[in-house]
Amino acid sequence: MHAPLSMVLFTTLAGMAQGVLMALVGLDVAAAWGLAKMPDTLRWVGALLVLILGAVGLVAATFHLGHPMRAWRAAAMWRTSWLSREVIVLPMFLLLSFVWAAAHFLHYSRLSMAAGLGGVMMALLLFLCTGMIYGAVKAIREWATPLTPLNFALLGSASGVLAASALAACFAPAACSALAMIALALLML
């Protein structure tokens, strides 16, 4: 199968955005427990990266549609279509990512933590939706397996944690090595 460039871009960029958010919220939780330091700059630059990657991925995905002006119809069949669920979950993921950073900026720590954890839940759900779109294709035996969503989750998480470790190298060097080790473990899995 030769996937269109728009779908490769969407899958890669959205997966990386999900992994970055999961890594940064993980650091946020560790900081709340006093186990790590989470500089505000890392959080805001990371949130900006998540939003940019997710938005560019979303724009790339619209190019895969035959009629981009009818993109809103993609959500109409959410009860039976993994694609429809993905179209619903991605904007929720992006919204919670924005709320996570904005709430922290406004010093609403409980809202920030709740939005961050909600964003992680949406990231995991988005990995499931994206993976099931391909896992449900019976014509490609290599993909028609329950391991396909897990593979999407591992690859997206690994690329995102790797990107988060690069950000940490600039803004929180103490967290860089731990994030790099997590990225390596995810890549090996």
Measured by DSSP, the beta-strand proportion falls in under 5%
Give the SSE order as H and E letters: HHHHHH
Low-confidence sequence ranges = none
Major sheet attributes: none
Write down the Rg.
17 Å
Share of helical residues: over 70%
Question: What do you see in this structure?
Answer:
Helix content is about 75%, strand content about 0%. With about 190 residues, the chain is mostly helical. α2 crosses α5 and α5 runs antiparallel to α6 (about 175-189). About 40% of the residues are buried.
Summarize the structure.
With 189 residues, this protein is an all-alpha fold.
Structure characteristics:
189 residues, 76% helix, globular
Layout of SSEs?
Layout: H1 5-32, H2 40-62, H3 82-105, H4 109-135, H5 147-171, H6 173-188
